[in-house]
Specification:
This protein is mainly α. Helices cover 80% and strands 0% of the residues. Helix 21 packs antiparallel against helix 23 (492-517).
Amino acid sequence: MKSFMSLLKTNLNVHFGISALKYRYFKEKKRLWEPVLIAFAVIVGGGSLVLLYSLLLLGVFMGGQVLGQPEIVLTFAFMATQLLILVFGIFYIMSAFYFSNDMTILIPLPLKPSEVLGVKFMTILISEYLIALPALLPAFIIYGTGTGANIFYWIKGLILVLTSPILPLVIAAIFVILLMRFVNIRKSKDVMVVIGSLLGLFLGLGVNFLAQKMPEGNEEEFIKNLIESNTGLIESIGNKFPPSIWATLGLSSPGWQGFAYFLLFIGLSLVLFAALLWLGNRFFYQGYISGQDVQRKGKSLSRKALRNANKVSGPVQALFRREWKLFFRTPIYVMNGLAGMIMVPFFMVMPLVTQSEELTEVLNYARDPEYAMITTLICLGIMTFATSINTIASTSLSREGQTFWISKMIPVSPRNQVLAKLLHCNSLSLVGLIIIAIPLYFLLDLSLYRLLIMVIIGLLANILVNNLGLMIDVFRPKLEWNDPQEAIKQNFNAFLAIVLAMLAMFALGIVTFILAMLDLPELLIYGVLTLIIILLSVLSLWGLVAVADRKYRELEI
């Protein structure tokens, strides 16, 4: 136990960079503006989101009171939080367990695989409290104060809030361990891991959709039955993920019944955690070590292959290919780049399955030729927002980590290196724009020329946003990290880039609104908007190249 706690303390220190931060801010007293800026962003940005979320939960609580079931707010919060942790926990666990740099140090130590796995799991669990606490505490407080709950409610509630991330993270960890243990026998291990991660994402989205879908038939009769049932509404929302019901009933049910559900939730979490440690002893090191073995089939090269081997590519083209290879080798990078592109079309198509009269009316307005320009501009905003908030550009240099010395040594200028990174980011943006544009095209009956306009202007806007994001990452890259998810999840550059992207899109939206109010011809509005974006893109590209030429010389690793 002593070795476990010592390793946990060290891992938390490295994971959160506690010693490095203390040395930078209290010893060297450098970059003191950073904690002030981070605190301001958390208070203003995070506080605003928590406030809006709390108002939403308050509305859910009040609606539940009307139905005689105020505990619905607890079910909603527990289910949403645990599903979110389950889906994204797959990526974080895969990165921490199998792609971290410290595994080569930890494996030779006299520690059981379950101890190493347990330490890494606890580190991720502590990180997930940044999501779980803001998501659960408002619901917990609203229900407790709204119903005048007793002291036992507050004690049980705090325990449930603190243990709520364990169950989804354990499920995600078991899935990852089994996946990595048995997928390494395939020829394309990295591709299979990415496919498995995508399946996990679709599983989470599918469960979320099924949990929201109303049964076919008479909706009024369905609502009536829910009201007449004591816990019908709670079960109808949570029956796709039973632990959310157990947590709700553990807090809202009186006496021994509530205590029994409370013990069921805690007991299942502990049992599955024990099963995870057992699996860790059996499969964790095997999956990691076998994944490090690279076997190549010995085959002779043809004359054509030999001729192609003698061909020389330009530096930008060669580095562009390298960016794609490095991107696909790490599943968490792929999922952070593709998740938004996958989820947005999914949520656009999902309402069609349970189409309501209100949705039909909205679609009719959107398909009306009289509102074609408004529909095009709104779709353009959706496409640009969905494809520009990924973290590809704003973590492009950070993802190199300890291998950045290679970029300093190769005989390629910094401007060519950032151009290759930009090409990679922009090609991903183009893929995302096309993926999102296709369902919009068929859903709204858009004309082909409007579709092309949306894709072209959307790509230009993404180029501008990617320029800004890459400039931020070149200016202050996070090159010291232990596992790949730290380069994204714990990189403040990603947050700054998203803020800048939203400000840029807000400014472009204001310009578009002014142009529309001036009653200018539609094509002229598109033309003016395009010229403004191109001008800003050129200026930002010039600034990016200037920053790259200076910072590449200064950066050390």
